């Protein structure tokens, strides 16, 4: 099956990229910063920066000079840009790298201490949000955010008289980042479901293409083999028995039209194959090939749920007999346990005896049987020829024995 390429993913909650896996983060950073999920983050994060910009009047008021005031405003802008870029950058890193980004955001808040003093605690919500959006482990997330809120509580309790107001900022630091962490994981689940859905659609399409290719091979392989045999027979009889030659040519036309109809039905997914229908078809094919046929009179003993698969095995088995066996006698036996096709042709080669055939026809048959829960093996038949055994699940056993090389 064709390998489905995994798209590069950036977003909250995606599996952590190991430090030793993939390219260096700097090579994927531009893509991460300009990904659709990064743009979604920018929109939401920009609105949350109101508290940062609300500190500008305090910074200007507490600055001793115009230069100091300008420096404070520049730091506010730099902090805002770092906050916007922190999440997309962290999404490209391993767990350790993400924690370093979160730590850098916390350290960046401390540069405002000369202007804001203990009011800097209010900025700690922002590194907490980065933790919630980027650290995938709930244990690490809750521990880091909890520690941040406790630290804020300690700072507030030591620097102002105790009151309910002391609890406001620690509660905000605890609640908003945890809420964002839950939101990030919801987004991650939705993104994973969408990615899985896309992968399932691709796999389903690939399997359908494989089914159509396998069925067309089985249909055309059998039909073209019979057409070839009948055409050769008609060419030999055209002078000796023109009447029979015309009949053979008529059969060729009928088989060709039938193959065309089967191909159309296979593509549309409505084709049906039955054991009884295939027995009737191989009777004519073996007669045209000059192979003596020993066939059962009925398929009633085959379980209903396995009759289509039995039909496919009969078709592929007899096609190999006609193409490769060089046999003079072919015997088909059907019972409640399965079906056996045996002939007296050249017999299997080394690879066939090992059961490791790579031929298109037998490989397609192997896939068909195994998808039904059975197994396929090959060997030497009772008449000295090639044996192909397909065992079905439960009590049913399907055996095809035939002589010849692979189709």
Q: What's the short story on this structure?
A:
With 407 residues, this protein is mainly α. The chain has 15 helices and six strands. It has helices at 25-33, 36-47, 50-53, 56-62, 66-90, 95-109, 113-116, 125-134, 138-159, 168-240, 242-268, 275-288, 307-325, 350-354, 360-371, and strands at residues 292-294, 329-335, 338-343, 375-380, 386-391, 398-401.
Provide a descriptive summary of the structure in words.
- The chain is rod-shaped.
- By secondary structure, the chain is mainly α.
- The chain is built from 15 helices and six strands.
- α5 (66-90) runs parallel beside α8 (125-134) and α10 packs across α15 (360-371).
- Strands 1-2-3 form a three-stranded mixed sheet, with helices on one face.
Task: Describe this protein with a few key phrases.
3-stranded antiparallel β-sheet; 8% strand; rod-shaped; 15 helices; 407 residues; 3-stranded mixed β-sheet; 6 strands; disordered N terminus; mainly alpha
Helix-strand layout with pairing:
Layout: H1 25-33, H2 36-47, H3 50-53, H4 56-62, H5 66-90, H6 95-109, H7 113-116, H8 125-134, H9 138-159, H10 168-240, H11 242-268, H12 275-288, E1 292-294, H13 307-325, E2 329-335, E3 338-343, H14 350-354, H15 360-371, E4 375-380, E5 386-391, E6 398-401
Parallel strand pairs: 1-2
Antiparallel strand pairs: 2-3, 4-5, 5-6
Helix pairs in contact: 2-5, 4-5, 5-6, 5-8, 6-8, 8-10, 9-10, 10-11, 10-13, 10-15, 12-13, 13-15
């Amino acid at each position: 099956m064709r390998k489905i390429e995994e798209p590069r993913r950036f977003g909250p909650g995606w599996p952590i990229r190991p430090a030793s896996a993939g390219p260096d983060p700097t090579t994927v950073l531009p893509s991460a910063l300009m990904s659709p999920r990064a743009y979604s983050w920018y929109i939401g994060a920009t609105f949350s920066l109101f508290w940062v910009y609300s500190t500008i009047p305090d910074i200007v008021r507490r600055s001793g000079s115009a230069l100091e005031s300008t420096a404070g405003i520049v730091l506010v802008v730099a902090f805002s840009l770092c906050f916007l870029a922190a999440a997309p950058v962290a999404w490209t890193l391993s767990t350790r790298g993400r924690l370093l980004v979160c730590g850098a955001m916390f350290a960046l808040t401390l540069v405002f201490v000369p202007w804001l003093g203990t009011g800097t605690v209010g900025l700690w919500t922002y590194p907490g949000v980065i933790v919630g959006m980027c650290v995938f482990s709930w244990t690490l997330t809750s521990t880091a955010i909890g520690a941040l809120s406790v630290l804020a509580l300690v700072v507030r309790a030591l620097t102002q008289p105790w009151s309910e107001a002391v609890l406001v900022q620690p509660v905000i630091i605890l609640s908003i980042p945890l809420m964002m962490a839950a939101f990030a994981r919801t987004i991650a689940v939705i993104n994973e479901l969408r990615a899985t859905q896309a992968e399932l659609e691709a796999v389903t399409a690939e399997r359908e293409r494989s089914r159509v290719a396998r069925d067309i091979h089985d249909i055309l392989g059998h039909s073209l083999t019979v057409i070839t045999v009948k055409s050769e027979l008609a060419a030999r009889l055209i002078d000796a028995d023109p009447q029979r030659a015309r009949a053979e040519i008529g059969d060729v036309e009928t088989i060709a039209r039938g193959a065309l109809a089967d191909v159309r039905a296979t593509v549309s997914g409505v084709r049906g194959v039955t054991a009884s229908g295939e027995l009737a078809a191989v009777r004519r094919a073996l007669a045209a090939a000059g192979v003596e046929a020993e066939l059962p009179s009925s398929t009633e003993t085959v379980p209903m749920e396995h009759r289509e698969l039995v039909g496919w095995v009969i078709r592929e088995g007899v096609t190999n007999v006609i193409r490769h066996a060089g046999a003079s006698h072919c015997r088909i036996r059907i019972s409640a346990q399965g079906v056996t096709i045996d002939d007296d042709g050249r017999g299997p080669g080394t690879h066939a005896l090992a059961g490791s055939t790579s031929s298109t026809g037998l490989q397609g048959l192997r896939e068909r049987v195994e998808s039904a829960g059975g197994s396929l093996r090959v060997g030497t038949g009772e008449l000295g020829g090639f044996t192909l055994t397909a065992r079905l699940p439960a009590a049913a056993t399907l055996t095809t024995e035939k002589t010849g090389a692979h189709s």
